[in-house]
Amino acid sequence: MPNWLLPENIADVLPSEARKIEELRRGLLDHFRLYGYELVMPPLLEYLESLLTGAGQDTDLRTFKLVDQLSGRTMGIRADMTTQVARIDAHLLNRNSVTRLCYAGSVLQTRPSGLYATREPLQIGAELYGHAGLEADAEIQQLALASLALAGITQVRLDLCHVGVLRALIADDSLASKDEARLFELLQSKDLPELDVISVAYDATTRAALLALPGLYGDRTVLQRARQILPAKPGITRALDELESLVQLAGGATTVTVDLADLRGYHYHSGVMFAAYVPGLPNAVVRGGRYDHVGEAFGRARPATGFSMDLRELARLMPGAERKRAIRAPWGMQADLLEKIAFLRAAGETVIQTLPGHENDQDEFDCDRVVEWNNKNWIIKQVG
């Protein structure tokens, strides 16, 4: 194996793609700031106990672990930044008011999250803390859809679900409550035969509703069918009402679907969850939802909702970046030449000096002008 061969699902980012990703990162962070979101930069690694607090087993399995040479304690390289941002809100900022935070940085995962996905996503996201009402969920949903529009993506399918449906459904059934983790797996995979077997001893109403959940997916009419099929428990009614409101507020999406069995991230989230899918990508390009309980482990429970996306995946969906117009200048140390080049760069122009003996071949730049000596002055001349 060549020494330079990279591990599976790890790749270099070459100039044109890197420029596209970086311009997208800057644009999205500036866009988040228009909504009042403040930028934070969590560390790449932390002690494992802190990093995995409130994140669940799934994050544990996706986290690379190592031993700190200074303390001897186990550390982890972050696989997701959401928990870190929740820690900053709960433990460091310690504000009582609504707090809006955003972030962007690399994360590392032991396994890719989906087909063709990288194990080193460049994660960007926004989190809103301190408001338990649906208004916060609506703002996060709107910001996520606006972010995709900013990236030039016009065809978006928004999928909505709510963990409150399952939790309210099994709350009064002790046998079903014991099997909560297994039920989550079976519903997510829509394994009806196994769901039928495991629910034999449950309350009849609970069992019938559980078997109906995998079929409750589709457009907004699913919510009307769910009200007819599922028991009218307060928790279920509240969850369906919230989904109804968010469907109406999803104007930035081409298509909106509801899937009451799509409980990805069930143990992490506490309310509405959503995912955005776009043509050309098999995985969800955006994932988000409410996760009110995560801050408890840091000593301060705060309502929380947010979303994140991978800039690398998002950039792949965008058209190739156009070559940047630039000016070619000869190599030289003459004071007037250097002054001319400095003046042009200060004005925002890209000026590339040609080194002796090299051709002017630039993949990223289109040198459509040159600096030439003419009539005792350095002038700018247009070229083909």
Q: Could you walk me through the main structural features you see in this protein, from its secondary elements to its overall organization?
A:
- This protein is an alpha+beta fold.
- It folds into 3 domains: 1-156 and 278-321, BirA Bifunctional Protein, domain 2 (2-Layer Sandwich), CATH 3.30.930; 158-262, BirA Bifunctional Protein, domain 2, CATH 3.30.930.10; 324-382.
- The protein is 36% helix and 23% strand.
- The protein has 14 helices and 16 strands.
- The chain has helices at residues 15-34, 48-52, 56-61, 82-93, 134-150, 163-170, 174-178, 180-188, 192-198, 204-212, 221-229, 234-248, 311-316, 335-346; strands at 38-39, 45-47, 64-67, 74-77, 99-106, 122-129, 157-162, 217-218, 255-259, 272-277, 286-290, 304-310, 324-330, 351-354, 365-374, 377-382.
- The strands form 3 sheets. It has a 9-stranded mixed beta sheet with strand order 1-5-6-12-11-10-7-9-8, with helices on both faces. A 4-stranded mixed beta sheet has the order 14-13-15-16, covered by helices on one side. Strands 2-4-3 form a 3-stranded antiparallel beta sheet.
- Helix 6 packs antiparallel against helix 12.
